[in-house]
Amino acid sequence: MDERDERKPKPDEMVVLRDVKKSFGDQHVIKGISFVCKKAETTVIIGGSGAGKTTLLRMIVALEQPSSGAIFLDHENIAGLSDRQLNRVRMKIGMVYQYAALIDSWSVYENVAFPLVEHTKLSAKERKEKIYDKLEVLGLDPKVVHDKFPSELSGGMRKRVGLARALMLEPKVLVYDEPTSGLDPLTSRMVDDLIDETRERFGITSIVISHDIASCFRIAHQALLVIQGKIVARGTPDELMQGDNAVARDFIRKSGVDTERIGRVGQPPVYDDVEKEK
Q1: Domain boundary among 135, 166, 197
Q2: I want to staple 47 with a disulfide (CB 3.0 to 4.6 A). Which of 125, 189, 226, 257 is the partner?
Q3: Contacts for 243 with CB less than 8 Å, ≥ 6 apart
Q4: Same domain, 115 and 186
């Protein structure tokens, strides 16, 4: 590990990576990545398979240590911290997994309660109040879903339950791993809305790992294109599409998404005149 970089981020910089590298033996997976995620904004990290997105995610949520460089979470450099120190840091991060990653044999209530049981000394009554409150905020009726099992929920409902669980410890940062993967277009749009509503309601900094270009254009304040362990383009989605970086433009075009017809969250989609007449 290199000498620790303790230059403090600015007050509105919630997650900061400085020249982060990660190697596994002779394999260099992350090759010097730097970026800043500001408070209450959404950063979407896009890239194809093998780009290094998963390794990057694992370092951000303190499940992997970088080989070198600095990672600041809430103004604390977490690179090089002990496992005990990292356990404290991890409580500031909520993780929303692909397909929600709910425990099949547990009810909705048990899944959402898990972080509170593991990390707090709240009474059963206090836990119930917090769980019911989060479920209601996320558009689920606690009395209806309380005893249901994940297999009894729709894809969109499972995403909401997974998000409720991630919010239980009131994290400052939420990290989403491919949140729209495997979902139909309407459910994907609902998940985008949910990500943005959660960010706005709770003032949370969101980091989304995704290959979904449509989702990126809908929710990202900042988009980062990662290829072979390096950031090759950064900016707003429109800047990536309309800028002078040919790699970014080509990557977006090859996705097959008509970016001109995608509105940001809260805005209606753009239709052409023929569709309007229908």
Answers
A1: 166
A2: 226
A3: 233, 235, 249
A4: no
